[in-house]
Amino acid sequence: MRASLLQVAVNEGESVESRRRRVAGMVREQAGADLVVLPELWTTGAFAYEGFGREAEPLDGPTHEALAEAASDAGVWLHAGSVPERAPDGTLYNTSLVLSPSGETAAVYRKIHRFGFDKGEAVLMGAGDALVTVRLPHTTLGLATCYDLRFPELFRGLVDAGAETFVVPAGWPERRRSHWTLLARARAVENQAFVLACGTAGTHAGIPQAGHSIVVDPWGEVLAEAGPGEQVLTVDFDPKTVAGTRERFPALKDRVLGLDRPHR
């Protein structure tokens, strides 16, 4: 299976519409891949909070329209990163779409863990409340976004729902890049799953982005890692490795669930 992670540069000098057209073109160039992945909030920038409301769109908005056409033209499954969604009731969400090779919407994931510690995304956007998986011909994807990476219980839930490959778009800052790599590898090892983690490059809202998109196998080995700038990271991997790893080293079977709280 071939995956292409598009580490898009999000810079303030480029308009949202210009970047949307440019990224759609990048998707079209990935014909021959099985799966293409975009970063989190690449239309606005993950830290450009003032743009969330202004650029928010419905699920069938201009980003969906442009990328559905691009996915169809390239004949690829497309994880379209995430965009600020405005729901019918007016609530904003950090929302990811997965599009099929015919351009149909296969899955919608609203980010559960919002970053900001009572400011920014944490107060401007609503929280999703559903674990989302989507079956591709060769693997089942489990969807998470950026800050979600810090919450292992979400990934355990995705494994229980059948996930074999985690897709994690992000707008991760350069100053915490070591956490990005560490957490991506940890989620892979503890769940015996592939991790495809696609971040942004560039600088927006004064925040340099980490880049360094990464693909990790079920043993925690890094199969490919991007540099800091805009880049297409393409890797071939065998999804059957997941079942083999879980069979040879069946650690997931030894989980102990439902422990009581400690007595005080």
Automatic annotation (TrEMBL):
SUPFAM superfamilies: Carbon-nitrogen hydrolase. Belongs to the carbon-nitrogen hydrolase superfamily. NIT1/NIT2 family. This is Carbon-nitrogen family hydrolase. The lineage of its organism: Bacteria, Bacillati, Actinomycetota, Actinomycetes, Kitasatosporales. The keyword Transport does not apply. Keywords: Hydrolase. InterPro entries: C-N_Hydrolase, C-N_Hydrolase_sf, UPF0012_CS. Residues 1-239 form the CN hydrolase domain. It comes from Streptomyces viridosporus T7A. GO terms for molecular function: hydrolase activity. PROSITE patterns: CN_HYDROLASE, UPF0012. It comes from the Bacteria.
